[in-house]
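Risk register update: the risk of archive-format incompatibility is retired. Evidence:
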Amino acid sequence: MKINRLKKIIFTSIPAIVLCLFILSHSSIGNPTPGSHFISEKIVNEPSADTIRVLNYNIRYGRGMDDVLDLRRIAQIIKDTEADLVALQEVDVGVERSFQIDLMKVLSGYTGLEPVFYKNIPHQGGEYGNGILSRFPIYSSRNYHIVVDGEGEQRGLLQTEIVIDDLKIAFMNTHLDHRPDDTQRLMSVEQIIDTKRAYRGMPIIVTGDFNDTPGSQTHLNMKEYFTDVWEHHGEGDGYTFSSINPNRRIDYVFYSNELTVEGSPQIRPVSIEVLQTEASDHLPILAIFVIER
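Archived output:
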C-alpha cells in the first residue's frame, strides 16, 4: 500500500496547543472546517451494505519508528484502506507524552468516522486505552475491564454494536497482557468468550493485539470459539511486529457466526493482508468481510 511521505515534525520544541493547531492547519489530508480544530474533509466513499472492511492497528499513540508523533500518517492509512471499522490499541487522550491531544477526536476529524474511546488506565495526566472508529452507525458501546492477575496492567475489552442496514454485528477490540507468563492472557480469553454470549443473534468480530503467537495456548483457546481469519485467507506468515523486520504475528482478526439465527444474515471473510508502514511499531491488518443475506 502506498503511504504518503509526510513532513517530519519535531514535537519536543513546540507547545502542545500550538503543535495541534500546526498539524491540523498544515495537514495534507484535508483542510479543517472553519471554526473547528478537529473536523476535516469528510470521506466521500459511502459504506457498502454488503461489505465490511475491518482495520486493526496498534498505533503506539501515533509515534512512528522515526520517533515522530504524526497522526496524519495513521489517518492516511485508514483513508487509503477505505476502512469501515477500525480497532485501535494504545490510544492516548490528554496524555503528556502525546502533548495532551485527544487522539480519537483528531483521527475522527481527519477520517470522518465516528469515534468511541474507553480508558483502561490513567496515564501522565490523561487516559490510555482502546478506540474504535466506524463508518456505520454505532448502536451501543461499552468497555469491560478484564480482571487483572497480580501486578499486571489493567486491560479492557471494548465492545460496540454496529448497525449495517437490517443487520447488527458485535465489533470488539482488545489489547492483552504482554508478559512472558500467559496466565493473564488466558484469563482474558476466558472473559472474552464469556462476553460473546451477550450478543446472541449477532455475528461477532474480535480484533486486537493479543501479545501471543499462533499455536500458543492463548491462540488455541480463542480458536475454540472464534475463527482466525488469517489462517483461512492470509498469505505468508502474517507477521505484524515489529514494523521494521517483523518476526511474529501477535495482532489478529477473529470472527464467529455461531450465535446467529438460522436463515439470518451472516458475515464471511474473503481476504486479509498485513500493510507495510513505519507509522507505529506494529503493522496494521486489513480484513474484508462480505454479508451473506
